[in-house]
UniProtKB/TrEMBL annotation:
Pfam family, one: ADH_zinc_N
Domain of life: Eukaryota
Protein's recorded name: Zinc-containing alcohol dehydrogenase
Keywords from the UniProt entry: Metal-binding, NAD, Oxidoreductase, Zinc
Amino acid sequence: MGLSTDALVITKPGSGFALEKIQLEEIEKDEVLVEMYASGICHTDLIVEHGFLPVGGFPIVVGHEGSGIVKGVGSSVTNVAPGDGVLLSFTSCGTCRACKSHHTAYCETFHAVNFGSQRPDKTPRAANEQGRVEMGFFGQSSFARDSVVCAASCVKVDRLTEDEMRLLAPLGCGLMTGAGTVDNIFAATAPGSIAVFGMGGVGFGAIFAAKSRGLSPIIAVDIDDSRLALALELGATHTIIGKQEKDVVGAIRALSNGGVNYSVETTANNTVKLQAINSVYKLGKVGIVGTTGTDKVEVEVDTMIKSGASIIGVAMGDAYTSEYLPKLVEEYRAGRFPLDKLTKHYKPEEIDTAVKEMISGQTIKPIIVWR
């Protein structure tokens, strides 16, 4: 056994998060010991707790938006060294066609290595008094004060301060997905217009990137007045209250001279998906980010042919994290990615409050601070 540390453990589906002591195993050759500073809370973590997302087993430590300091590295690790400040994101195999072409979010083993939460040889990374604890969710399991992390999940960021680690931890998932949809999937250019459906972390990431690229109008669509007001403050030029506007598509087309060039759908709602598809102008691009895992949407082929629109499924913003996360940090430092306007810090003991305020919409991006 290696280090004794604290972690938020899900004992079984529906059990909630329990702060308890765990023992970490020694790191293997392709792993990194990270002293965690913070971890954003994502809805995906809650889906695991509810038992709706298959993982490697229970009990389990989740968390996949971490940040921290490297304390040790395995013998084959070359991308980080002890003392490096890192942001954490998803892991990948590094050897399949997608990975070799720097599209690691589409790794052939993505679901197995990120949701499986296990080493390839199935040996444990951690244990508590009752026995084995699964650790390795998205390669990191950052809901822990210290964690055994896959090297591929670690992104070194130069001059990363302690305050930045406590604030920027959430960059590794939702915010990166939204921004990456605009930057990487669309490669959006001005002049151009965009509609973003759903003002959560993904939606705000898309808003930030759209503003940085000079798009206009930037139309935010949501059912929450307070989130739309914040969207206007942080980059949107127009807002539409989805629960009040009877013709969302018509309203978007009226604001954008017949339709937007780009639309981003983050809600996993089928009605909203169709709104996103029908809101784009000729040859527009639609990024579908939100899914329940079983949802489907029907689009008339004739409509697609006449519009020439591209409907694109988006995983993790197609981010090549070793290059893209440092770019987002520089966007933040330049004042173009105001993540601090979305976040609230919580102690590990306050996990239940953090989850409650996230679900209610009171907090857009809660962050657990370990140090």
